[in-house]
Amino acid sequence: MIIAIDGPAAAGKGTLAKRIATALNLPYLDTGILYRATAKRVLEAGQDPDDVQAALAAAQALGAEDLKRTDLRDAATSKAASQVASIPQVRQALLDFQRHFGNSHGAVLDGRDIGTIIFPHADVKLFVTASVEARAERRYKEFLAKGEAVGLAEVIADVHARDEADRTRAAAPLMMAMDAELIDTTSMDASTAFARALEVIRKKTSR
Ligand code: CDP
Question: What is the pTM of this model?
Fold first, then answer.
């Protein structure tokens, strides 16, 4: 069983994906971590996230330790993640890992291109979105809870810029798969979104 969850930044994909994975007893992969960890390696080496060779080498060097890092969610890493994610060679280098993860025991995966490129035949595809204001406000609250000093206007601008970059890039742009079910969480709390997702999963599968 493969459940693909795609959508723009801070739409609540991660929270939803984890709840679904727990409920269905499936492994969970946050594929954004792969791009964030690649970006972090590039930044720490003092290299440019738009440098194809540097970004590719960083993606190829990823190991289990990179994926356990807890310092990948700051604004600079988020922006650089979107930059390395627009490089086709980087996406190609990370593709096998994602497919292998899903094909081993089934999985819930969240990202931008899971239902379109990584698992085009996923059993269930959800496209999770919300207004840019709602998404930025959630991300802003996450930063505040972590004690990070950021302004709401700055977070809105970052989320908006990253969405634009992710939607308009040539390589695996963010888009809703034709056969995905849309869940707009603008005025839904996490439990309502989870209940809606379970309905879709039940309809599409026998679980
Ligand atoms: O948590 P948030 O939604 O803000 O971002 P994320 O899922 O961790 O992804 C960070 C960045 O990685 C995105 O802005 C995309 O550019 C890129 N990404 C991607 O291109 N493809 C994926 N499957 C996952 C992430």
Answer: 0.95
